[in-house]
Amino acid sequence: MRGSIAKRLALMFAMAVLLITAVSAVLLRCSLQQSLETQMHNELVLRHSVLDPLLSKYESPAVWVGVHQKLDSLTPTDERVRYWVLSDDSNYSYGGAMPDGQDRSRQPDGFSIMEVPEQHCPMVLLTKTIPAMGSRPELRFIVALDSTPFMATLSTFTETLVLTSALGVVLVALLGYWIARFGLGPVQRLSRQANSLPPGDSKQRLDTSALPHELLELAVSFNGALARQETAWCQLEGFNANVAHELRTPLTNLIGQTQVALAHERDLNELQDLLQSNLEELERMGNIVNDMLFLAGAESGQRATELSDVSLYEEASKTVEYLEPVLLDKQLTVVIEGDMRVRIDRRLFHRSLANLLQNAARYAAPDSTITVSLVSNGLQAEVSVSNAGEPIDSVHLEHLFERFYRADAARARSDAHHGLGLSIVRAVASMHGGRVFARSEAGLNTFGFSLTSESLG
Ligand SMILES: Nc1ncnc2c1ncn2[C@@H]1O[C@H](COP(=O)(O)OP(=O)(O)OP(=O)(O)O)[C@@H](O)[C@H]1O
Ligand SMILES: [Mg+2]
Q: Which of 44, 139, 421, 454 could cysteine-pair with 130, CB 3.0–4.6 Å?
């Protein structure tokens, strides 16, 4: 189910308020309960302190009748306060039997609680021993206070607290929802802005100037995604133009040659030559299309599957041997340095290294040496080809692996080279989980690729 941020925030606010009010309600109730208890104890102590001297002073049973009357007069009709005098001598006893039936004469002095059967709340007692005097035996004087009014105060307070807390939680939830919706206004504005971006204009971006910083990151990422889309779109457009351009030259040649041939009557040899030339153009077009399909496969994430355990030195030697005629043309020497065993697709490796060697042979100074280095770099194997030649401008270096990119503008589109060799090297590297690199320093131009641990044996 799709959630709502405003609802979630409102719920969180409500939970936070519920937690806070619950904790403070418990604390407040405890504190009130404690102060009510203190109040009851104080009242008991006060009543005790008033009557204690009276009870202690008199000893004869005749005078004690007056004490009993005094206690009667002090006992309210609702029996909220009650008095007991416990004694072995019935002349001194007062108040009758204790309602809970316990023998209170045995219990220690101090405060205690007494459950009264017909009463909802207990009575709080203060018991004190009055020592014997003259003919009067030792007495136990008990003052009891009904806790019902105190408990009623406590429960009214608790009910009010629960009610106000519940009301507070509901109000905070509603207010929280409204505040969250109000606070999320910039999100809605941002979404409206994103919706109103015109189609077909890849240059448009979200305006981040007035955004709160919580949304800035999101908008910047969104703009980043738009910028990447724009780059991809431009690349696609450029790529389409490049493919059309590369295919146009051989097609124009084919059409032109065929038209010329058809303009006059031709003998068999001339027609054979024409077909031979047309075949070459068709093969060039076929190669471009095949290379494009290969690159499209690699770009869609295809990995090298026909892996075999090989020695890179041996495989590189085979590629060099295959290219010997090209190398001999310019009196070039190839040196292979290093070796390691890896698990790779040897067909792809040959194709990639051959592309690098063909470039090196084309751009190397005559009579120079081309070096093929096979270096193990941690979990990666690095294959690079260096040749002595003109320095390459750093502006070109980072683009040379792009499709149809040629640093030499004068040569571009004028010869059999389409600018796909290095992009195929990059595709082979990515199919082996590796990457490509190019350097031009100290008169040496180096192009290479790596193979990651996945393909290492
Ligand atoms: N060893 C090198 N020295 C100098 N420049 C190089 C070297 N290798 C490549 N380049 C530059 O990089 C460009 C791209 O090379 P890439 O192999 O992709 O295309 P290409 O060789 O022009 O054509 P293709 O390989 O399709 O026949 C070349 O046109 C050239 O300008
Ligand atoms: Mg090339």
A: 139
Q: Find out whether the beta carbon of 447 lies less than 6 Å from any atom of ligand 1.
A: yes
Find, among 19, 145, 130, the residue nearest to 76 by Cα.
Answer: 145
One-letter amino acid identity for 282? L
Distance 347 CA to ligand 2 centre (A): 17
Per-domain residue ranges of the chain: 5-156, 213-299, 308-455
CATH of 213-299, one of 3.10.290.10, 3.40.50.720, 1.10.287.130, 3.40.50.300: 1.10.287.130
**CA distances to 241, 333, 417, 422 from 448, in Å:** 28, 18, 19, 9
Give the Å distance between the CA of 406 and the centre of ligand 2: 9
Q: Which CATH architecture has domain 5-156?
A: 2-Layer Sandwich (3.30)
Pairing mode, strands 123-130 and 436-441: unpaired
367 in helix, strand or coil?
A: coil
pLDDT in tens, 163-194: 999 999 999 999 999 998 888 888 888 888 88
Q: Is the minimum distance from the CB of 392 to ligand 1 under 6 angstroms?
A: yes
Q: Whose structure tokens read 């905070």?
A: 172
The pLDDT tens digits of the residues spanning 341-373 come to 999 999 999 999 999 999 999 999 989 999 999
Burial of 345 (0-12, 13-18, 19+ CB in 10 A): buried
Q: 169: Cβ–Cβ under 8 A, 6 or more apart, which residues? A: 14, 17, 18, 21
Instruction: Count the neighbouring beta carbons within 10 Å of the beta carbon of residue 12.
Output: 13
